[in-house]
Amino acid sequence: MAAATALLIEDNPADRALIGHEIRADVDLPFKLETADSLRTGLQILNSKRIDVVLLDLSLPDAHGLDAVQTLTETWPDLAVVVLTGFDNTQTALEALKQGAQDYLSKNSLDGTVLIRSLQYAVERKRIAVELRRSEQRYRALVAAMTSIVWSTDANGKIQSEQPFWSEYTGQAWGKYAEYGWLDALHAEDRAIIEAFWRSGADPGTEVEFLTRVWHDKSRRHRRCVARVVPIIAVGTSVTEWVGTLTDVEDAQQAEEALRRAERLASLGTLAAGIAHEINNPIVAAWTSAEAALNVLGQPASQDLLAECLQNVIQSVVRCRDTVEGVLRFARHGTVEQHNCDIARVIRQAINEVEHYATERLQSLTWTSTANLPVIYGNEAQMQQVLVTLMRNAIEAGNAGQLVELKAIGFDDSVEITVTDSGHGMTATEQQRAFDPFFTSRKERGTGLGLSIAHGIMEGHGGSITLASDEGRGTTVTLRFPASATSAGTKDTTSRDSTV
Q: The whole model's pTM is what?
């Protein structure tokens, strides 16, 4: 334990030498010692150094009796003080303690053990007193600042004393809410649950929070409130009383509900606009192709043009079908056939599908994996779809010459796959909406369905997908697949590092 610092204020040189020797002799819990021969010199030391405890002689040339104690305790309220005198005077001792001293010692019966113990106890008692004072100050400030109603009941839930804040909120007079009368202010549908909490014997170790409706006198209606109940335990496990707060959350709940409604409407609008856009474009293309086919129908040498028009119609219909299927997958997360899958093979197949796209955009695609990736129970086609979506997004976010990096790390119970690009990154708002359907940060391309569908697929596999992005520096998307219960490692047990 680090040594505390004691200040001895003593005008007698012999006493200073004797007391200093006793203090320095304790090698287990030593005190660093500062000395002063007058109160004036002692005050100068206190102003310049950190002192934990003062050993104060009551007979000083510039202070007499308890005046010095009062000066010290008023100027340094956190300072421990032990009074030292040559006379055994009980009345003086009591007065010193009332002035704020922690202990009183007589020079006539002083030895080193008693002195050291007294200094140690004084420091500790003062520390506890300071903590209690600060705790009380914090409590008073907290109660004054709270907007909640503070209340208390006995061990059985009866209100035994007037609660003015409760009366002001509910309009109940003291005679109305005394004992169990306060339950009448609760909504009839909530009353039985809270009443049963006490009358059935509440768990003494329980801190409970209720959402209940309480009558509000000014608005003449019940308002939603959060009631928090905390037990006061005096002896053993017996509750002596319950204290708590009642916080009106009606306005906050209404604002939250309004926000949720607005968000649902906004999401619905985004979804509807996205579907309309994704279906309208191929419909227009099919319509144009069909009109062109009709215009050349029956004309000589029109066979090739008719075939091209019909092919465009088919492609447009397929695009509409894919959009509808994507929306259904997002909305329903429909079940698909799942089985034990070699995740390394899925990764290779996804890379093979994307590598030509990376080459076209003059970018590099690299992937590495740890050995013995666990078997994943899932659908290979859907897992490949997720990886392809992430890699294409990463490629489209970057510029020529940049690198897209895929890493697969095997754990005992899962596989973690990350796809990282060094592209333009995403803003905080874009990150929050990244998994919303039809939301995209790429204005020139993309439907905004890719990540939302990927999110649904990961949920269907019992996994997770998270995104971290730094605007201007790139994005990392992390997939985590749970390993199959029968996983014993995949056929592919070597680390890979390939670049295209």
A: 0.40
